[in-house]
Amino acid sequence: MVLLDNSNFILRLEKIANAAKKDSSFTLTFKRYDGHDKPVPRAGRPPLPKPATYMCLIRAQSKSQKISTVVRQEDVPTMMGMYSQFMKSKMDGLKRVKKVKSKAKATKG
């Protein structure tokens, strides 16, 4: 998995979205991140210190490509602005799902 800065993450995410538009899909995951890369210590050992501020870990995956970025608390408004701009520009191929009424509901009302 490649850890990128926020602006490069959005650029690579656009490339992944363009590649996935034809025949595949991609997933995004948002997760609270405390900055620890080590696992939780065993019983009897001192616990990992609590962070002063939490960060947000964003992961994207498509087929075999995996990218990620860590967003700090002060960078959240700018990152969410870039992310919303990405969503508005790239998510235009969504199709509206047609609702099918069942016969039971049609006869009631």
TrEMBL record:
Keywords: Cytoplasm, Ribonucleoprotein, RNA-binding, Signal recognition particle. Gene3D superfamilies: Signal recognition particle alu RNA binding heterodimer, srp9/1 (3.30.720.10). It is found in: Cytoplasm. GO terms for molecular function: 7S RNA binding; endoplasmic reticulum signal peptide binding. One of its GO terms (cellular component) is signal recognition particle, endoplasmic reticulum targeting. One of its GO terms (biological process) is SRP-dependent cotranslational protein targeting to membrane. The keyword Glycoprotein does not apply. InterPro entries: Signal_recog_particle_SRP14, Signal_recog_particle_SRP9/14. It comes from the Eukaryota. Heterodimer with SRP9; binds RNA as heterodimer. Component of a signal recognition particle (SRP) complex that consists of a 7SL RNA molecule of 300 nucleotides and six protein subunits: SRP72, SRP68, SRP54, SRP19, SRP14 and SRP9. PANTHER family: SIGNAL RECOGNITION PARTICLE 14 KD PROTEIN. Belongs to the SRP14 family. This is Signal recognition particle 14 kDa protein. It comes from Drosophila kikkawai (Fruit fly). The lineage of its organism: Eukaryota, Metazoa, Ecdysozoa, Arthropoda, Hexapoda. The gene is Srp14.
